[in-house]
Amino acid sequence: MNFSEQHCDPCQSGLGLLTQDDLYEYMKVINAGWQISDDGLIISRNFGFKNFAKTMFFINALANLADQQGHHPDVCFGYNYARVSFTTHEAKGLTRNDFICAKAVDELTVASRA
């Protein structure tokens, strides 16, 4: 599974929810900081930053990435932190799109620290 080279499918294409086996396998591909909600419908990750400017740099880069993918996270942020959560609202749970975007965010954070 190489999510790095994949792009999100349009939600209108009837994306199916992932099975428990899929979730287990997909979680291995993304950063260990991502966690699945207790109900299995959302993946989230917390990020820490040195200051507000670095937080906003990340938020803006994340917004650009989400627009490119056509799949948008829920985000909560403050002075030196951000919490990013993915779910496919239309499917009412987790789909392949959520993991494609999570992997892209992982790569975004690695690139921003280089």
TrEMBL record:
UniProt similarity note: Belongs to the pterin-4-alpha-carbinolamine dehydratase family.
Annotated keywords: Lyase
The reaction(s) this protein catalyses: (4aS,6R)-4a-hydroxy-L-erythro-5,6,7,8-tetrahydrobiopterin = (6R)-L-erythro-6,7-dihydrobiopterin + H2O
Biological classification of the source: Bacteria, Pseudomonadati, Pseudomonadota, Gammaproteobacteria, Lysobacterales
Pfam families for this protein: Pterin_4a
Keyword Ribonucleoprotein listed: no
Entries under InterPro entries matching the protein: PCD_sf (IPR036428), Pterin_deHydtase (IPR001533)
SUPFAM superfamilies (alphabetical): PCD-like
EC number: 4.2.1.96
Enzyme class of the recorded protein, top EC level: lyase
Name recorded for this polypeptide: Putative pterin-4-alpha-carbinolamine dehydratase
HAMAP family in the record: Pterin_4_alpha (MF_00434)
PANTHER family attached to this UniProt entry: PTERIN-4-ALPHA-CARBINOLAMINE DEHYDRATASE
